[in-house]
Design goal:
The protein is α/β, with parallel strands linked by helices. It contains 15 helices and 11 strands. It has a domain of 317 residues: Alpha-Beta Complex (Amidase signature (AS) enzymes). About 2% of the residues have low confidence. This is Amidase.
Length: 460
């Protein structure tokens, strides 16, 4: 087996080992382990690593321990509330929590408490999950990063805007953390921190109570295993529903079975030209390995429908930035009026452009988005899923730049489910492979992801 496809796994098995939760549940039931003991192991890792990683904004250890004790009692009685009963979870600091401030990465909201839980937080609490704390987000969930560092190399960015969530899972502090994605805020940091990232179908998990509500904003999960990513997402949707007007996440309350896809479309998007020859070669070798297992691999060079999709999706990043900028310019303008330093210069510069976008331009952008989605739907009968990279390379050095979202934006503009799988390594750091499915076929995508991971001998 090629070392570039497996080396990052062995690295994480040392200091940066990611946590899993589902495989501990039998021990909880038999009494050889407990949710409280599991939580304490998480806290010990946080104590050891948080000073350098800085993944969390705030924590409520008193409530977390009390909730873990209650979960321990339920397991002792053989009556857990759900598959995530006792699971410690980090919450991206865009979501309201009744017991902790919601600061959204901005000094304007420092210490601001709403005294209520976002829908997903309330739903997870009802499912027995333990809300351990709030994780760092970039300013307003956009571009200006917080202090979080990549746990695999603290001189590098963890990505953004779900930086704290990605780093907390990558550092083994929690098995699961909530993230969001509008452009590339979940898939990209999953790649950089070497964890499993799941961006579901748009609206599949209720995001009510989040700071922003943009037309591409979707709630998803960072996790130490595919199984934990699925059960956390499924239970969150089961207890909190989907976004208003959306049917929620389809599937079953157990891990998905491995499913070999009939055909995958290898897509390049506008990101391909930004990749180094080394990254391109690694990706091609991985795709070749999948093809050798009997999966039909098609691409833009042999399928006219794939070529049409590739051409349509090339401007996805520019379209997305303008759509979201237009939608968010009103609250940002209000914040800007609070003073010259109320918002970062990064956001302020972008805001000046967004203010110039007219209503008719916005309507045209929405039409372009719909055309891209239509091109994607045309692939449904012949292509089981799309496969591409999660990022252009390893996490960049430094903390000011969170990395290029060019690969991650594809699933965002489609509103389709995507999963980042930690299968490659470049520059001694992880690089994710992304698979993209079709709306409301999230469970099917997990089955494909499990099969892909299995052929590379990875624990899922």
């Amino acid at each position: 087996m090629d070392t570039e496809l497996t080396k990052n796994k062995s690295n994480r098995n040392n200091e940066n080992k990611m946590l899993t939760f589902y495989d501990h549940v039998p021990r909880f039931l038999e009494g050889s382990d407990s949710p409280r003991a599991y939580l304490e192991r998480c806290i010990n890792t946080i104590i050891k690593r948080e000073a350098e990683v800085q993944a969390f904004v705030s924590m409520n250890l008193v409530r977390a321990r009390a909730d873990a004790d209650a979960s321990t009692m339920r397991y002792a009685a053989g009556k857990p509330l759900s598959l995530v009963d006792g699971m410690p979870i980090g919450v991206k600091d865009l979501f309201e929590t009744e017991d902790l401030p919601t600061e959204v990465g901005s000094p304007l909201f420092k210490g601001k408490c709403t005294d209520r839980d976002a829908a997903v937080v309330q739903g997870l609490r009802e499912a027995g999950a333990i809300i351990l704390g709030k994780t760092v987000t970039a300013e307003f969930g956009f571009y200006s990063p917080g202090p979080t560092r990549n746990p695999l190399d603290i001189t590098r960015t963890p990505g953004g805007s779900s930086s704290g969530s990605g780093a907390a899972v990558g550092a083994g502090m929690v098995p699961v953390a909530i993230g969001t994605q509008v452009v590339g805020s979940l898939i990209r940091p999953s790649s950089f921190n070497g964890n499993f990232g799941f961006k579901p179908t748009f609206g599949a998990i209720n995001s009510s109570g989040a700071h922003s509500n943009l037309s591409q904003s979707v709630l998803g999960m960072h996790a130490g295993s595919l199984t934990d990513a699925w059960i956390a997402s499924f239970e969150a949707a089961r207890f909190a529903g989907g976004d208003p007007g959306h049917p929620g996440l389809y599937g079953i309350d157990e891990p998905m079975m491995s499913t070999k896809p009939k055909a995958l479309a290898r897509i390049e998007t506008a990101g391909w030209q930004k990749c180094s020859p080394e990254v391109r070669e690694l990706f091609e070798r991985l795709v070749k390995r999948i093809e050798e297992k009997g999966v039909n691999i098609t691409d833009r060079f042999c399928d006219i429908n794939v070529e049409s999709f590739e051409s349509s999706v090339e401007p996805a990043l520019d379209i997305t930035n303008d759509i979201c900028g237009y939608e968010f310019r009103w609250p940002l303008s209000s914040y800007q009026r609070r003073g010259p330093n109320a918002i970062s210069s990064n956001i302020a510069q972008r805001l000046e452009r967004w203010k110039s976008i007219e209503n008719e331009t916005y309507r045209n952008l929405l039409q372009q988005r719909e055309k891209i989605r239509s091109q994607h739907e045309r692939l449904k009968d012949s292509v089981t899923a799309l496969i591409t990279l999660s990022a252009t390379g390893a996490a960049p050095k430094g903390l000011e730049y969170t990395g290029d979202p060019i690969f991650a934006v594809t699933s965002s503009i489609l509103g389709a489910p995507a999963i980042s799988l930690p299968l490659l390594e470049v520059d001694g750091m992880p690089l994710g492979i992304q698979i993209i499915g079709y709306k409301h076929r999230d469970a099917e995508l997990f089955g494909i992801a499990r099969w892909i991971m299995s052929i590379f001998d990875h624990k899922v």
